[in-house]
Amino acid sequence: MSAAQRPAGLTKYLSRLGYSVTVLTSATSGSGPIPEAVQTIRTRDLMVSPLNWRRSSFAAIKGESSDMYDETPSVVAAWVIPDLEIIGWIPFALPRALALARRKHFDCVITSSPPQSGHLIGLALQRRGIAWVADLRDRWSVVPAGERSSLSRRGWLDRAMEEAVLSRADGIVGVSPPIAEDLRDRVNPRAVTITNGYDLEATELALSAAGQVRAPSERFTVAYTGTLAFGGASPQPLLDGVRRLQALDPKAAATLELVFAGPMSATDLAQLGAPDLLGTVRVVGALPRGDVLGLQRAADALVLFVDGRHRSGVPGKLYEYLYSGNPILVLGEGSEAARIVDEVGAGVIAPLNDPTSIAETLRRLVRGRQTVPVPAEGALERFSYPRIAAEMAEQVERAIVTRSASM
After folding, report:
1. What is the pLDDT of residues 343-372, one digit of tens each?
2. pLDDT (tens digit, 9 = 90+) per residue, 99-153?
């Protein structure tokens, strides 16, 4: 899963910078040691226990099962603040973290979210004199500060917890400028941006074990990899754009193929399996990571959906897309992901809910009339994990100085 790439990448390259990294994580994230960590501890988690009646759906989301996942929001999650892991994982992880701190010397702890409740571990260890950097891969509170009047009671409590916890961090990181700016203005003046990124070394290793990925050369293939409904994305705007293209330019539409790789829900399959799109849409389901990367490279273009709830965040798959070398079609004008693609010169952007605009963009791509600039040499270097780990190391050192000064 893309979200796991950041902790793994930081662990590997912080270790190579001379840091001794111990990883405390959940059994839900996999098994075995994290490469180049001195110790990996995987604690119990109720998400994968018999107490979780939705665990088969969770396994499907992770690609460990060919079953469909249930995208229906959890009723319990709607009431638990800040997230279910505060009752599913924190009761197991926090005692292990405190025990580790008693046995070993740690200069700094980095907590990475989601889950947001993981930052409570950083707060607990900080109270024992350990410097703490909070790393946010997405917003904690999703309602902008200027719209507090629209917050529910749960939203108010969630935001209050966010401010109470993160305001105490010795260092704080957001993966995009909008996230970091919001944190800096509202929660903690130390907030900085360190983006997600891409590990070329790990990618080449995964690709070496990949199977043969079929992407018909006689058709223009647009691929999407990852979850849809679970991640808040919907293929419907793209599908409506294809329908509009079929009406405007049947010949161009006939040369187009959409390929979707990843776990599927019933809603996903119903949308992608529409009779009028038969022969245009191909669903290949969940694939091993190497095959996913192979598909990204074999396709002619890659599509990314960014809806209104996630405009400030940047999906981790964007960085995989960037390094595939293929043009990226971002459906989500004005989003942070669109800004990055435009700045780097790696694709084209269209409004998310404008089928006519999407159809025209697809037509230009299919007919070769859409000029997609090639990123300048070195333009993607800032998204490499060696570079990102070096930036995180700076935050770690600053947090250590800050904690020492406060004691």
Report:
1. 998 999 999 989 999 999 999 999 886 666
2. 999 999 999 999 999 999 999 999 999 999 999 999 999 999 865 444 444 557 8
Any idea what the Cα angle at residue 83 is, between residues 196 and 188, rounded to 5°? 55
Cβ–Cβ under 8 Å, residues 315 and 2: yes
Cβ–Cβ under 8 Å, residues 34 and 40 = yes
CA distance 245 to 267: 23
- CB-based contacts of 57, cutoff 8 Å, min separation 6: 67, 69, 70
CB 123 within 8 A of CB 165: yes
Domains assigned to the chain: 2-197+384-406 (3.40.50.2000), 209-377 (3.40.50.2000)
Q: Report the distance separating Cα 43 and Cα 115, nearest Å.
A: 15
What is the C-alpha separation between 397 and 8, in angstroms, rounded?
20
Name the 3-class secondary structure at 327: coil
If you write DSSP's letter for every residue of 114-137 in order, what string do you get?
SSGGGHHHHHHHHTTT-EEEEEES
H helix or E strand, kind and range, residue 141: none
Among the listed residues 71, 169, 154, 66, the one whose alpha carbon sits nearest the alpha carbon of residue 113: 169
What is the maximum alpha-carbon separation in the chain? 71
Q: Is 165 within 8 Å of 204 (Cβ atoms)?
A: no
H or E segment to which residue 104 belongs: none
DSSP characters for 249-317? -HHHHHTEEEEEES--BHHHHHHHT-GGGBTTEEEEE---HHHHHHHHHHSSEEEEE--GGGSSS--TH
Q: How far is CA 6 from CA 1, 192, 193, 253, 377, in A?
A: 10, 16, 14, 38, 24
pTM of the predicted model as reported, rounded to 2 decimal places: 0.89
| Residue whose C-alpha is closest to residue 261's, from 203, 221, 205 | 221
Strands (E), 137-246: 171-174, 192-193, 220-225
φ, ψ of residue 193 in degrees (nearest 5): -100, 130
- Phi/psi for 265 (5° steps) reads -105, 170
Strand partners, 245: none
